[in-house]
Amino acid sequence: MVVAALAATTAITSPAAANPTAGSISGILTTSGGAPSPHGSATLWTVDQDYVGHASTNRSGRYLFSDVPAGSYKIEFRTQDNLRQWAHQKSSFQAADAIVLDAGAALVVDEVLRPTGSISGRLTRSNGAPVAYASVTAIAPGADFGYGDTDQNGHYRIPALFPGDYKIEFQLLGGFRQFAHQERTLDAADTFTVVAGQDTVVDDVLLPTGSIAGRFLDRSGGPLPDVSVEVTGAGSTSWATTDSTGAYRVDDLSTGDDYRVAFSDQNRTWRQYATGRTGPQDADRYPVTDGGTTVVDDQLLPAGGLQVTARDSATGLPVSDYCLYLEGAGSRNLCTDDGSLSFTDLAPGTYSGSTDTAGDYLPQQVPVTVQSGETTTLEIVFVLGGTITALVTDAATGTPLADACVAVARAGTGVLRPDGYHCTDSTGTVSAPRLAPGDYNVFVKAPDGSGLGAQWVGTTGGTGDAVTARRITVSSGATATVAPALDPAGTITGQVRSASGGALITSGVVALYPHDHSGNGVVGTAVDGQGRYTIDWLGPYRWPLVFDVPDHARQWSGGTGNRLLAQKTQVTAGATATYDVHLRVGTVVTGVVRDQAGQPRAGAGVYAYNAVTGEEVGRGGGASGYRMLVVGPQLIKIKSEVHNGYGHDTVWYDDDGSFAAARTVLISGTGTRTLDIVNPAG
Q1: 225 vs 27, 95, 229, 330, 362, CA distance in Å?
Q2: How far apart are CA 305 and CA 477, in angstroms?
Q3: Strand, coil or helix: what is 127?
Q4: Are 563 and 554 in contact (CB under 8 A)?
């Protein structure tokens, strides 16, 4: 437990059971001129980016973290002006110094804020009228940001910015955004230099805008108040609510976009699109003109219904106890204990249905289409899950092991299921239930302090590689048994450097499989402030490792993105194997996610997957484009996702709907690869 305090004089007392080996971190935050920086904050993070604790600076600038376990940390500071820096005088987590706290030590970490300048200016309309109450953001290429707001006369000032280059974003109350000077995207925006002790003036004039307004009526033709209205263009979304007459209005919409208008109730039980459309893909598009108002009226569509029954896939007998959750044209859910569900007053359109049951039936995903004025019938066919039961013992003595933890992975994938670990009872027995029929591998982590090592359950004993693990077939409603026998543990340790220049890498994760950044010792460990890692709980087998560190592509030992080609390190019981690594930075994969009209889609996330293993090997995103690092040469497939207000628009490159159908892309070992992606809006 970490206890944070406002200052040493008002420290919160640690519990009586506090760790006696824990220490403390304290210090004083001061300005570049040496004055205390009060009413700010310090945040403590592990070098693996896990949050540890938060403290405020008092009027003397002092902060304190008490009861801190020994380890390596990084400290983030924020001032009352929202100025942020990392110890010592660094602008990002990646660049921050690692602070090493020894057991029981009282470590002092003082921090001096870097000198600052400011940006100020005025935002007006094309006729000279002020734009009041717009938010203003100064954006630096790295991690430095500053914030302000325009007053009633359009004036703003961002008082504390570190020296450097910034771009200025204006966002109006309705959601409209632009960048100085008169640009729609961050990439096209001008750059402004802040100098310590000086004020940089950035005035701007709002781009041409128009409005969308209208009325929304109930099914009888009367006004429908309190309806949420969502107006979505290529790069922005604005909101409004209908008044007592059913009227709404959204101002400050860019004249360069066509807009889709969605209506929903406050609880999202129904959703429809103008005019009279059930889904975003069919919605009409509305342009706006400079200073003009586009009228978009609509009326609530007639409702439909859904009648649901369920049966067992093997016996055909009714299933009585289950729940169905609907998301799509609305959001509704019902549960039953008599086998029947009846949804009434459903908005017409398509839904994605998901189920839950009290027994061992597997969750089901069921598509549903509801028509106005009709009742749709749906039969859900439930499949009983299977179970893997393990008896975990000490290989040398045959003694059953309590508190050993078992997890399962689809055979050959090396990636554990998201339901995590199931740990053995006093008899050494544990079960992993509700598994879909198919082949699995089993991973076992020995009890802490036992001196025994982890393993993938092999055909004869353990193995360190999921590729050679035993395939365990699970059938519906049946139980498969395994008897893992754990061998003595050994250790892999090493130092992590960049292949580009050989610099030490002092944060990140070394793990047995990707997609877990916890560094909690279950599947991996953190890289410490000296660039070292140690995993001391591995069985005596050959193990591949995956490295996830800042500013480098995710890669397996041997510098590959393909787990099947990874270099393996032999672990010997009771001994330490050394695997030092120089990680490759990777190839830059970059581009823009655009809608069908060619406009960038804000907030798009882009994910790269190895085309052979299906594992994620890179990710990126941004306001107007994406950038990610992928180690090459490697065959990948790419997916883009954009939040659309009710879910995500998901597209696989190049315009295919699944991983299997997606285009395979070869990423070379050097240079930059540009791939623009079309992800249609709605």
Answers
A1: 55, 52, 11, 18, 41
A2: 33
A3: coil
A4: no
Distance in angstroms (rounded) separating the CA atoms of residues 53 and 2: 6
Bridge partners of 310, per DSSP, are: 380
User: Residue for token digits 């597209």?
Assistant: 651
* pTM assigned to the model: 0.71
pLDDT tens, residue by residue, 43-68: 999 987 888 999 999 999 999 999 99
Q: Which of 260-269, 270-279, 506-515, 574-583 has the lowest mean pLDDT?
A: 506-515
Contacts of residue 193, defined as CB under 8 A and 6 or more positions apart, other chains included, come to 164, 165, 166, 200
The pLDDT assigned to 517 comes to: 41
Contacts 24+ apart (CB under 8 A), 532-537: 532/493, 532/494, 532/495, 532/496, 533/493, 533/494, 533/496, 534/491, 534/492, 534/493, 535/491, 535/492, 535/493, 535/510, 536/489, 536/490, 536/491, 536/493, 537/445, 537/446, 537/453, 537/454, 537/489
User: Position 380: which residue type?
Assistant: I
pLDDT at 302: 96
Contact in structure between 205 and 125 (CB atoms under 8 Å): yes
CA-to-CA distance for 45 and 525, rounded, in angstroms? 15
Encode burial over 657-671: b for 16+ CB neighbours within 10 A, e otherwise: eeeeebeebebeeee
Evaluate if residue 647 carries a pLDDT over 90.
no
Residue carrying structure tokens 């300048």: 117
In which residue are the tokens 């690594």 written? 581
Calpha distance 468→564 (Å, rounded): 11
Question: Collapsing DSSP states into helix, strand and coil, what is residue 88?
Answer: coil
Domains for the chain: give ranges and CATH numbers. Answer: 3-112 (2.60.40.10), 117-205 (2.60.40.1120), 209-299 (2.60.40.1120), 304-382 (2.60.40.1120), 386-486 (2.60.40.10), 490-583 (2.60.40.1120), 587-678 (2.60.40.10)
Query: Is residue 158 within 8 Å of residue 185, measured between CB atoms?
Result: no
Which amino acid would we find at residue 95? A
Residue 612 DSSP SS3: coil
Q: What are the structure tokens assigned to 519, written together?
A: 């560094």
Q: Read off the DSSP letter of residue 253.
A: E
For range 487-506, the mean pLDDT: 94
The larger pLDDT score, comparing residue 600 to residue 586, is at 586
Please choose, from the candidates 182, 186, 189, 185, the residue with its C-alpha nearest in 3D space to the C-alpha of residue 206: 182
**For residues 13-17, average pLDDT:** 35
Average pLDDT over residues 652-671: 87
Handedness of CA 392, 393, 395, 398 (dihedral sign): negative
* Most confident segment among 97-101, 490-494, 672-676: 490-494
Instruction: Read off the amino acid at residue 265.
Output: D
Rounded-to-integer distance, Cα 555 and Cα 566, Å: 9
Percentage of the chain exceeding pLDDT 90: 70
Return the DSSP state at 219: T
CA atoms within 13 A on the CB side of 431: 11
- The per-residue pLDDT for 645 is 57
Q: Is the pLDDT of residue 7 over 50?
A: no
With beta carbons less than 8 A apart as the criterion, state whether 278 and 350 touch: yes
CB atoms within 10 A of CB 652: 21
The SS3 assignment for 101 reads strand
